[in-house]
Amino acid sequence: MEIVYQPYIDPEFESLIERINAPRVCIDNDTCQHCTVVKVDSANRHGILLEMVQVLTDLDLVISKSYICSDGGWLMDVFHVRDQLGKKITDETLNLYIQQELCDTKMRAGVPKELQTCQKRKLRPCHISTEHTALEITGRDRPGLMSDISAALYELGCHIMTAVAWTHNGRMACIIQVEDGLKGGPIMVQKRLALVQEKLESVVEGHHENRDKKSVLLTAPAADRTHTERRLHQMMYAEKDYEPCQGCDGSCRYWNGCKKTHVTVETCKEKGYSVVNVRSRDRNKLLFDTVCVLTDMQYVVFHAAVSLKGSMANQEYFIRRQDGSSLASETESRKLAQCLVAAIERRVSHGLRLDICTENKMGLLWYLTRVFRENGLSITRTEIGTHGERASGCFYVTDASGNDANPRTVELVRQQIGGSVFVVNKSPNSSLSISRSNGEMEERPRFSLGNLLWSQLERLTFSFGH
After folding, report:
1. ACT domain: from which residue to which, for each copy (predicted)?
2. Fewest Cβ atoms nearer than 10 Å: which of 67, 149, 217, 393?
């Protein structure tokens, strides 16, 4: 028998390299008149770009410019950011927090309450809490599914603390955090956990195509849980929601005003890169979603440039596989293109948005989703969380056929739900029209988290001393 010897690599070696070459973060409020410039120099490793984007988007900051270079084992990234009001980041506490988080992205534990206070609003958690039991649910989407899931949890005495659900191409992915409705805290009794899983699987799998595939996963409290939205992308990918995605076939020749998503993957033989070009409508967290797919599909971004022209965003990535090679086949390139289109489409909100703030109580999500269901409304996307005695979140709803909800039906729903309910519509000029419970209308300016403006970039090797 042949004996193969492999070198031992200490698992602490990578962190040692990072400690020797500690990241340098500069937060500059003087160079640019309208935004704060965040510059990061660091030793490179797989996934660090995504972690940096997470730091900024979790704080609801607007990334207005970004350019990336990570050749030769070292990265130099620049982000131009603003707050939701379009102003510079001048709060010293927030600047210090950004600097600390970018220097140690592996040790992230959510946004502290004092920073939420300085931001003057509650930031919804993007990391699964270490104090609750997490449920990951996937399956075929159908009308009333969220209502059935929340009803089952209510019957089992589970109090839903947060819930985030996406639907796309007939698929659904949902992450729910629950605690014991009687004792509080995570559910630790194994028999009860098994009962919860069995009940939820019976709700979901009655319409699931692959009975051999588990549709419900329960995870105990842990400090290393994946970022919620990144995990939703992974769950949707596992459901193969990308297979129907094609984007535009290019017959519009790009510049003829087409608003569809364009993705091309080409090979740069001279440098050994695969060049990915993405053109789509701009929206919030567009950069996060794109980089998330590239990272989780084990591609490394060496250079990137993103620009905005009107309402359309243009992204260009020079990538390789983790083993250093470019994409090997047309099939691989086509799959990557499909996955990028899917990642962009998943967060595109279909339907009318309802923002809800009401009293936090046992069975709240079941009650809300039951009201929607009884009035013939389907949920296409939801995000809800609890903050002490209050619960707040948003729901995107359509009628049972996927068309716009009837205004009279929406008004009836608002009256039944009670509390503070705001109906948010996208107006033709891209601002947000907000209908309050008293029927008055006001306009709120639109600030996209994914506004990535770099229209003057001509070359990826742009000088970092600029």
Report:
1. 134-215, 353-431
2. 217
CB half-sphere exposure, 388, CA atoms < 13 A: 3
Neighbouring CB atoms inside 10 A of 425's CB total: 14
pTM of the prediction? 0.82
Between vectors from CA 290 to CA 297 and to CA 141, what angle results, nearest 5°?
A: 80
State the residue for tokens 């630790």.
188
Question: CA–CA distance from 243 to each of 29, 330, 371, 384 (Å)?
Answer: 44, 15, 33, 29
Q: Which amino acid is at 46?
A: H
By C-alpha distance, which of 233, 227, 17 is closest to 110?
A: 227
Stated length of the chain = 466
The residue-averaged pLDDT of 113-131 equals 52
Residues whose CB is less than 8 angstroms from the CB of residue 89 and which lie 6 or more positions away in sequence, other chains included:
27, 29, 36, 61, 81, 82, 83, 95, 98
Cβ-based neighbours of 385, under 8 Å, separated by 6 or more: 122, 124, 125, 161, 162, 163, 391, 392, 393
How crowded is the C-beta side of 196, counted as CA atoms within 13 Å? Answer: 30
Sign of the dihedral defined by the CA atoms of residues 208, 212, 218, 219, in that order: negative
The pLDDT value recorded for residue 222 is 64
CATH of region 13-118? 3.30.70.260
Helix (H, G, I), strand (E, B) or coil at 392: strand
Q: How far apart are CA 68 and CA 46, in angstroms?
A: 14
Please check whether the two domains, 13-118 and 133-241+349-426, share a CATH topology: yes
Ordered by start, the domain boundaries in the chain are 13-118, 133-241+349-426
Average pLDDT over residues 310-318: 87
Residues 146-152 have a mean pLDDT of 95
∠ Cα 336 341 345 (to 5°):
145
- For 90: left if phi > 0, alpha if psi spans -120 to 50, otherwise beta; the answer is alpha
**What is the pLDDT averaged over residues 54-71?**
87
Q: How is domain 133-241+349-426 classified at the architecture level of CATH?
A: 2-Layer Sandwich (3.30)
Structure tokens at 134: 């997490």
Structure tokens at 65: 């410019």
The partner residues of 62 in beta bridges, in order of sequence, read 82
Burial class (CB in 10 A: 0-12, 13-18, 19+), 357: middle
Mean of the per-residue pLDDT values of the chain:
80
Q: What pLDDT is stored for residue 82 in this prediction?
A: 85
Report how far residue 416's alpha carbon sits from residue 305's, in angstroms, rounded to the nearest whole number. Answer: 48
Tokens for 112, please give them.
């502290």
